[in-house]
Amino acid sequence: MRRQGAAPSHHPTFATVSALAAEASAAGEIAGKLTSIYFPGGEAAGLEEFQAIAGTVLASIGATRGEAGSFVLAAAEVAARRDRFTPEAGEATLRQEWGAAFEVNLGVARGMLLALDKRTPGLMEYMEATKLGNHPAVIRLLHRAAIRRGFAR
To answer: Which domain of life is it from (predicted)?
Structure first.
């Protein structure tokens, strides 16, 4: 019997996802190599949607191999422990990390997400529904992408 909210035994462990991230040579490749990811309430359709969205978003922001790996690891963490990734938890982590720059940095990350949502309609809705948008690593990734694209300093 499976605990509610836990990934079925045939889904990859964090170590497997980490190994995929280390081996992949491009952002889209990481998302494409996943054979399963479990978002409660999502099941099989969730994987195809995740692969499509992750590949598009990571390519759009010019994600490095490390950033793509971080994104996939964040997705695995959120899928395994959705209850842990609330907006309040993400805010607390980033407030501590960014200090006085929190509001500005968060605004920059949100601006990047808005720009990406225009290119990938439904992205914001997906990030909210899966709680992936609450993960500090994803917010950091969006912030770095905005700086890299010249949207902020």
So the answer is: Bacteria
